[in-house]
Write a structure and sequence with these properties.
By secondary structure, the protein is an alpha/beta fold. It has one domain: 3-Layer(aba) Sandwich (Rossmann fold). Helix content is 37%, strand content 25%. Strands 8-9-10-3-11-12 form a 6-stranded mixed sheet, with helices on both faces. Strands 2-1-4-5 form a 4-stranded antiparallel sheet, with helices on one face. β4 and β5 form a beta hairpin.
Length: 273
């Protein structure tokens, strides 16, 4: 059975709802000063599931995935990754705030691709991809190089191994960022508006790479996006956030085509001619 067929079997299985989520948000709140950005988020991400987060600016979409990547800490609530509490750990029978070692261990299965690439400008794109496997996972240079070359070939940049980021287009830089995340073999990949900083003519090449990644393997994906057509095509579930709460969620057809939620209908009208 192919990996794509296996994913389809998992998602369509009657028992899929009983599968332990790879990530769970349980009554999660987040405030920045006096501004409450998230207000009691409950959300499960299942293995192999592709989830699109949509909503107006300021609704909390990016904050949700930044907390999973441990870039922002919840004000209240719990986040569970692979059955382990992300932001808390047990000590002497009590849950206490996680230390850096615990955070690093639990987030090891999570990869993230940012809006603005975040590549090291003084490294070639091959070195950019090899760095984390060597320094975070302790892999040998030979193993890190082999898999980095494989991932750069996957994103169509196998002929640019010795180029520096300054020699690449925005779309190419974003594809390097994807390869760099993939070399860590994450079980869940987070995409934060990865096309928003690109010129319009470069958006398609980046979406095509994400499309191909989505078709392969059992890796879960969470995509913060304003590309509604792409969300409808790629997502198993679409989650609409509004004013810090999940206002609606369901299949792409349910959420993007047949919703009666006035706020959602108004939001979607901006993307339709």
């Amino acid at each position: 059975m192919s990996e794509a067929a296996l994913k389809e079997k998992i998602l369509s299985s009657p028992s899929h709802d009983s599968i332990q989520p790879i990530a769970s948000y349980k009554d999660v709140y987040k405030s920045f000063g006096d501004v409450e950005v998230l207000k009691g988020i409950d959300l499960d991400i299942k293995p192999a599931e592709k989830v699109a987060l949509i909503g107006p600016s300021g609704s909390g979409k990016t904050t949700i995935i930044r907390m999973l990547m441990t870039l922002e800490e919840p004000t209240a609530g719990e986040i569970i990754v692979n059955g382990q509490n992300l932001w808390h750990m047990e000590r002497r029978g009590k849950l206490v705030r996680a230390n850096e070692s615990h955070l690093r261990e639990v987030r090891g299965d999570i990869g993230m691709v940012f809006q603005h690439f975040n590549l090291f400008p003084h490294m070639t794109i091959l070195e950019n991809c090899m760095s984390a496997p060597i320094h975070v996972k302790g892999e040998s240079k030979e193993k890190a190089r082999e898999y980095s070359v494989e991932m750069l070939n996957k994103v169509g940049l196998g002929d640019k191994l010795e180029n520096y980021p300054s020699q690449l287009s925005g779309g190419q830089k974003q594809r390097v960022a994807m390869a760099r995340a993939l070399v860590m073999r994450p079980k869940i990949m987070l995409f934060d508006e990865v096309t928003s900083a690109l010129d319009p003519e470069l958006v398609g090449e980046v979406l095509e790479v994400i499309r191909q990644i989505a078709k392969e393997g059992e890796m879960a994906m969470v995509l913060v996006t304003h590309e509604m057509d792409f969300a409808q095509e790629i997502a198993d579930r679409v989650v609409f956030l509004d004013n810090g709460v999940i206002a609606e969620q369901g299949t792409p057809d349910e959420v993007l085509m047949h919703s009666n939620n006035e706020r959602l209908v108004s939001f979607l009208s901006r993307f339709r001619s």
